[in-house]
Amino acid sequence: MRVRGHGGTRLNVVDFGGEGPGILLLHGLTGRAANWTATARWLTRHGRVVGYDARGHGHSDKPDGPYDRAAYVGDAIAVIEGLDLGPALVVGHSMGGLTAWQLAGARPDLVRGVVIADMNPVTPPDLVDRWRRWLADWPVPFPTLADVRDYFGAARRTEGESFVEVMAGGPDGWRPLARPAHVLASLAHWADRDHRRELGPVRCPALVVAGAESDQPVDRQREMAALLPDGRFALVPDAGHVLHYDNPAGWRAAVEPFVAELIPARRDPVPAG
């Protein structure tokens, strides 16, 4: 499925199924909607679950630009409005979490609640340089998917699994679907910034979920929950940054009660007779 986003960019949309209120899933930098598959399975008990590949990512268009925050938020607005999902529960990981709270602040009519997964609201000044060096070190093309798992899962195996989802195979091996130039252009619009002032306008219920072993500061995320007008905080043990891969049971235990407050789960049908 395709939806025209900000400026006409075609976005690849995945409808994971379910019925009822809309639930929109926003992946992180270099990711794609498929990263949410396991989470989407249990979220379909609560509503219609939709994800999409962000501009420059996955199978969405990869224009030269823009990759600023207005474009990312505009894409989310276009998906919610185009698929009649609003007011939606918006679940975002990392960069997707940033988009989620900016969307909620800009268009409260479209958002019933947000889940912000492992995103630091105060981004470091050297973030773009660190990513530029890291991207340059990737041994692209990867000969096999096993090499992808080994490279990205050196510290935490599950992170390797998340990167398998964002590779495309070709005659010479496996390459990332997101281009480094577009990744860096996206980063440039939220690195070296203090985003805490954006939290006040987020009036809907908000859950901040941090990985206990993440490289994103847990104390900043606790502070973010406190700054949100209707915020709360949950910590997922045995999880790094990609917490929904690292500890899926802990992630679900942290998130589903919040989801159920906003969108109660449908009852299983009673068998006839």
UniProtKB/TrEMBL annotation:
Source superkingdom: Bacteria
> AB hydrolase-1 domain spans which residues?
23-250
Q: Name one GO molecular function term.
A: catalytic activity
Q: Which InterPro entries match?
A: AB_hydrolase_1, AB_hydrolase_fold, Carboxylesterase_BioH
- What this protein is called in its record is Pimeloyl-ACP methyl ester carboxylesterase
Q: Which organism is it from?
A: Micromonospora chersina
